[in-house]
Task: structure prediction
Amino acid sequence: MSLFSDVPQAPPVAVFKLTADFREDSHPQKVNLGVGAYRTDDCQPWVLPVVKKVERLIVEDESLNHEYLPILGLPEFRSAASKVALGDDSPAIKENRVGGVQALGGTGALRVGAEFLRRWYNGVNNTATPVYVSAPTWENHNGVFTDAGFKDIRPYHYWDAAKRGLDLAGFLDDLEKAPEYSVFVLHACAHNPTGTDPTQEEWKQIAEVMKRRKLFVFFDSAYQGFASGSLEKDAWAIRFFVSEGFELFVAQSFSKNFGLYNERVGNLTVVAKDNENLTRILSQMEKIVRTTWSNPPSQGARIVSKTLNSAELFDEWYGNVKTMADRVLLMRDQLKAKLQALGTPGTWDHITQQIGMFSFTGLTPTQVEYMIKEKHVYLMASGRINMCGLTTKNIDYVAQSIHEAVTKVQ
Amino acid sequence: MSLFSEVPQAAPVAVFKLTQDFNNDQFPNKVNLGAGAYRTDEGQPWVLPVVKKVEKIIVHDDRLNHEYLPILGLPEFRSSASKIALGDESPAIQENRVGAVQCLGGTGALKIGAEFLRRFYNGNNNTKTPVYVSAPTWENHNAIFSDAGFQDVRPYKYWDAEKRGLDFPGFLGDLERCPEHSIFVLHACAHNPTGRDPTQEQWKQIAEVMMRRKLFVFFDSAYQGFASGSLEKDAWTLRYFVSLGFEMFCAQSFSKNFGLYNERVGNLTIVARDADNLKRVLSQMEKIVRTTWSNPPSQGARIVAITLTSPELFSEWKDNVKTMANRVLLMRSQLKAKLQALGTPGTWDHITDQIGMFSFTGLNPKQVEYLVKEKHIYLMASGRINMCGLTTKNIDYVAESIHEAVTKVQ
Result:
């Protein structure tokens, strides 16, 4: 008899199961359009050249050691990361009311932010405060806020499947109807999984309602720079909300834009009313961090910090980011062109209108199943594809497969 | 008005506040005997030579990339880490009933283990299961289990201040009287903060009661190799409990024995009844990890895995560990000898009887205050000193200062 006899088997995380199935598939033309990581045109992972360079600098630097970082992380990383999000000239930064908590990727930043809000927002330990996440959203958002103790996670209207675009009316309506002080998780850019972002005008409307109804702004920013190739463009929404005077959180990930997935580089940027509030908030963040990971890992933060704080390396990084963003844009163009050339039923404009790593193809679950089982093209049941999985070598096969799925399967 | 006006300022973590005060102190002969990190005889942090070597190997290995690790971590790290704890010949490992979760240092391993136990041990979500931590213990144990949801964290008798030793009858008494199925956090070796471990005979008695009363064994192993210089010796207790057939957890830290403090290298070793139970347990561990940090950082785990799985590097590492352990042993002998030579009142055998990084000097709070304020020697209010802070250059000053404190202050 085991102490754990009654522990149930947990289902695997869908996106990792997909990749596991892909790995086991021996079909020569298999394509993985599942998990969100950049691939080169040879379908290989890519260590950014600037990262390789900085890793060498770090290993040669005899002045560095492995002493514990402060609980909140490497100071030069935290400030550089927040600057990337809010802008070098950010008034909020100049007013000393912006702080950062170095966290374990975007996940860690969301988790620490969620834990803080559950303890201290809208009362003390108010687990009943509703938390709204987009329908659909990254599959882990729900789990992160639930495990932080929130009992009421709700969807807000976002994706309009019929028109394959943003359901702005539904979104605004949910904002108007949400209880005051509800927490809203917003995707700063390159919405995962739909790739569909509000326009600037739409963001302005969203902000107006959120301010009026006292809703809490929690941005998830995992693709800054990666989405459009421009750091400023991809941070427009965040900076607009800050300029509107919101106190807000931004969970930043450097997994994608630095290709540092496995070093877990993230930052929770906190924008407070003033320095005094910020100080108290950060002191409580320390308590949360201390019982979770004590203090964060150094390697990834050092790489990012060195890069962002050196004019030359920063430029090189920006070039690397553009390389990735441009390849994605090229694949978008080509996929749409090929589907149009094939005369695949439906409209395919959304492929180039959507932004970032992912595209919500609009394929139905049975069509997705066809793609996987018959064509060995792996994508999420939602119809989400990772554009990075496309290459000049496989794009014809994928376009052809989509064509077959749409014409043969309903 | 801020959303966060009511958020109170949290008190700083005592040991970090101590180091901060030390850093701000201008006194030329100041000594930091606070935070637990190894120092050379020059009072400097030490990057282990084998670590430096392996970091270079990693940076020059072009086959490596930064793709996400599996949720449970780098497989070769997990298995080699568990082997270090349980032994190469461990029957439990051969029986396929040992698994592991790569975690963020010892803290992360404790956290994941605690979260799992709260969800699945002794019923579902049984937050009332008592968790016992030694009196005294590492300051973070209590909070980790509280934040994981346990509502009843209690002390078990451990340190006998009068006899400056283990309160063994008290410890056994608590084991006999506690509710069945209570969780006990045991220090595998080099008890923090007292430096006092049970003898092998005492551990046998402890194990007998725990088995009979169905108490859950959760080891905290942060000093394997570092304590005595021998990996086997420092793991005797763990291995003994495993040999008795306990299902148990062991939170391992590689911060100290690899000097990799800031890369957050830890491992939660799980010993289950059989492979089937292990599998279900690990699947639930994945769920917990996914909403906390998603997947762990690579750098530190790679360094440890490469070292442990290469016979040559493994030998070199063991030597580096012996270097550290021996310096600590030397400082222990010298401090005791100097106090005895000074004729400092009291007995000082405990300094060499105790093991590991720390020594519970027996100094009272007033004497500690004297040392900090008058002599600029920084130690914890509990009287705990980090032996690593002693060097051949400062040991006379420290011995004399202790002598003054004991003779002048009551």
